[in-house]
Structures are given as C-alpha cells and as structure tokens.
Amino acid sequence: MKRLLFMLMALISLTASAQSADRLYEEGKKLYDAKNYTEAFPKLKAAAEKGHKKAQYRLGRCYEKGRGTSENEQLAFQWYEKSAKQGYAKAQYELGDCYKDGEGVAKDRKKAVEWFKKAAAQENADAEYALGKAYLKGKGIAADKAQAKKWLKRAVSNENGGKEILAELRKEAAEGDEDAKAILALIGK
Q1: What CA–CA distance (Å, rounded) separates 53 from 25?
Q2: Which of 8, 40, 157, 180 could form a disulfide with 173, with the two C-beta atoms 3.0–4.6 Å apart?
Q3: Which of 63, 106, 108 has its CA nearest to residue 83?
Q4: 123 backbone φψ class: left, alpha, beta (φ>0; ψ -120 to 50)
C-alpha cells in the first residue's frame, strides 16, 4: 500500500512539474514576443531547466541574440541541442546552423546537414532551404542538383515561411547576388 501511495505521489509530482514548465514557458513566450526579454529570460530558463523543449529553443535564441542576457554562442548551442534532441524542428534547424557556421561548436558541415534533414523532414522551411543550398553547393553532402531543386522548391512553397524566403531571394538577386539568381533560375521563380 505504501508503495502504491508513493508511486501515485510521484506521478502527481511529475504532472505538476510538467504543468509548471508549460505555464512558465507560456508566460515567458508572451513576454518574449512582447520584446520584454529581461522578464522573459528567467521564466524561459526555469521552464527549459525542467526539460520544456520549446523553452530550451527560446532560451537558445536569448543566448544567441543577447536577449535578456549576454550573448553566448556556446550556451545557445547547448540549449538548441537539448531541444533538438527532443525533436523540436526549429531547434534542429538552429543546431544545424550552429554546425554550419561554427557558432558555439566546431564547424562541421556533415552534422549541419544531418540536423537540417531532421528539421526538413518536419517541413521546417528554413531547414528545407538550407538543405537545398547544401545539395546545390555540395557542402556537407554530395552535390546533387535534383535534390537541391526539390528542397529549394519545397522551401519557397512552404506555408510557414516560404513567402519570406522567396522574397529574400528576390531581394538578394536584385542586389546582384549570383547565388540567389542561380537558385531562382533553378526553381523557376
């Protein structure tokens, strides 16, 4: 009987902890979205430390951008990694970006592509775009024009962010960026 009671109390405690992390994250997210980073940071950090994957991602953003705290590429990488390992696509993309650029970790194009693939499989437009560019340039993966075209088309057609990617490509092409021009020609835009 004592064992059953102990297990029930442990379950209730875990549930309360999860609810607390969710509540902290929602409060922190609201403050973050309102650009009140100083107040958002401690709430996001508390939720992240409880294992909340979205809070871990946002905490990574705080460290990457210096929002509510000092910029710290290593801490940004660590929090993105925790979130990415829980399957959060936005964090998987950011982790890939860290590996691609060597921010907070040694540059590793192959690992970058691995993380871009995971996020792209969840239809993250930024990851689809990054994966397409990797295939186009042969960075971290063998160059493959057909795969590049496939992923770049998916990126610009993505309902969540595709229009922004296409607009940025067009802007860069108009400013003379040869890569942007080549991508637009490849995808027929």
Answers
A1: 10
A2: 180
A3: 63
A4: left
The H-or-E segment that residue 29 falls in is: helix 2-33
| Owner of token pair 């508390």 | 46
Residue 35, phi then psi, degrees to nearest 5: 65, 25
DSSP strands (E only) in the chain: none
- The DSSP code sequence of 122-139 is TT-HHHHHHHHHHHHHTS
The amino acid at 130: A
**pTM, whole model, 2 decimals?**
0.87
The 10s digit of each residue's pLDDT in 27-36 is: 999 999 999 9
- What is the rounded distance in angstroms from the CA atom of residue 60 to the CA atom of residue 75? 7
pLDDT of residue 19: 58
Q: What are phi and psi of 82, to 5 degrees?
A: -60, -45
